[in-house]
Design brief:
Shape: globular
CATH architecture of the largest domain: 3-Layer(aba) Sandwich
Oligomer: single chain
Strand order of the largest sheet: 2-1-3-4-5-11
Helix content: 25-40%
Order of helices and strands: HEHEHEHEHEHEHEHEHEHEHEEHH
Structural class: alpha/beta
Number of strands: 12
Number of domains: 2
Distance between the termini: 45 Å
Length: about 375
């Protein structure tokens, strides 16, 4: 109930501090982010750091659970969080190994609004609403993984062509994640799209792994082809760095004999590009948990993003030695401290017609 004292407070803030009115939620919202990996996972560390910065700026409480690459532990974590004495206001999680429906059933049982990120849920067409599938699946933010796979292939092919001896073919070998992972499936689609545009490039092999270093090394060592490899396409930075190290032991010089790239924009991937250990890394989707928090903020403050869409894509871009410094110059633990995340909210910016989750704007705002 809105007491007279609270009413006076709200009126006072409205007149004297209009830009902060919407930040005065009666109760700080508790949002739980479920990471599918271990605490040391490079990509999810970036994701969590960014999300924490957003939650701090929007006065939200972010709680983290780690799944240790185990879908059953993810289920246990979601159930445990849902039954916590302090009931969460919202969940953010990926559809780990196509387990999204299993996760959302728990959220539905406990009536907790949820936003899926990074790995989308099966059974939702791009034109439909996530809420048609489940009323508590209020939104989904996923990478444009097909375009990421395409951009990675195109960047590597372009670099290989610039250094290509016309007497020899351009041969490509590819390493992806699990066959069942949507990210893996979509990134391979992007690779195949690029190969159609560059028929002079020959795909020698496509190996599926579980994304780990050990599985990547095994897949590389199991390859028995005799043809010269010009390009190594890897579905993640970790795999790409692993392969760069592996092929260097075979006497192949990255950036001269062979061109290697991955996806994720991890800190290690960016440094590897800077040091010419990789040709490129494609990314930007580390921001998805942060974008989800902004959607939750608007949702809880009376501006349901459903009026625009329930499905959003994070745009992924390639970074090479020519532009990687744009990100690395902000590569500090507090690099997001100068970003005014309120500018991305429709509640705090009533003239904003559509969500503009723009990485270029983000980087320009970031602390240099």
């Amino acid at each position: 109930m809105l007491t007279f004292r609270k009413l006076i407070l709200l009126v006072t803030v409205f007149f004297f501090f209009p830009n902060t009115t919407q930040l005065l939620a009666e109760n700080q919202k508790n949002i739980v982010l479920f990471s599918p990996g271990v605490k040391e996972n490079q990509f999810w560390t970036e994701m969590i750091d960014f999300a924490q910065s957003v939650s701090n700026k929007l006065s939200m409480n972010l709680i983290i659970y780690y799944g240790n690459d185990n879908p059953d532990l993810m289920v246990s974590n979601i159930e445990r969080a849902a039954t916590n004495s302090t009931k969460p206001d919202g969940f953010i999680f990926p559809s780990m190994t196509s387990q999204g429906k299993r996760f959302i059933e728990i959220a539905e049982k406990h009536k907790i609004p949820s936003i899926i990120i990074n790995m989308g849920i099966d059974g939702i067409s791009p034109e439909s609403s996530t809420r048609d599938l489940n009323a508590f699946l209020i939104g989904q933010i996923t990478p444009d993984d097909e375009n990421a796979g395409y951009e990675l292939a195109k960047t590597l092919i372009t670099q290989a062509q610039m250094n290509h001896n016309s007497k020899s073919p351009i041969n490509l070998i590819a390493f992806s994640g699990r066959k069942s992972d949507i990210a893996s499936i979509e990134r391979i689609k992007g690779l195949q799209k690029a190969l159609k545009e560059f028929p002079e490039v020959k795909l020698l092999s496509l190996s599926n792994t579980d994304w780990t270093t050990q599985a990547t090394i095994k897949a590389a060592s199991d390859y028995s082809g005799k043809e010269t490899i010009s390009i190594v396409w890897a579905a993640s930075d970790l795999m790409a760095i692993t392969l760069s190290n592996y092929y260097s032991t075979k006497g192949l010089k990255q950036g001269k004999d062979i061109f290697i790239g991955g996806i994720d924009w991890t800190k290690q991937g960016l440094i590897a590009v800077k040091n010419n250990e990789l040709t490129t890394t494609v990314g930007g989707h580390f921001a998805e948990a942060g974008w989800a928090l902004i959607l939750f903020y608007d949702y809880f403050n009376g501006k349901d993003f459903n009026s625009e869409s329930t499905q959003f894509h994070s745009i992924m871009k390639p970074l090479t030695s020519q532009n990687v410094q744009l990100f690395l110059q902000n590569n500090e633990s507090n690099r997001w401290s100068d970003v005014n995340f309120k500018t991305f909210s429709k509640v705090l910016n009533p003239n904003l017609k559509s969500y503009k989750f723009d990485l270029v704007v983000l980087l320009r705002m970031a602390k240099s």
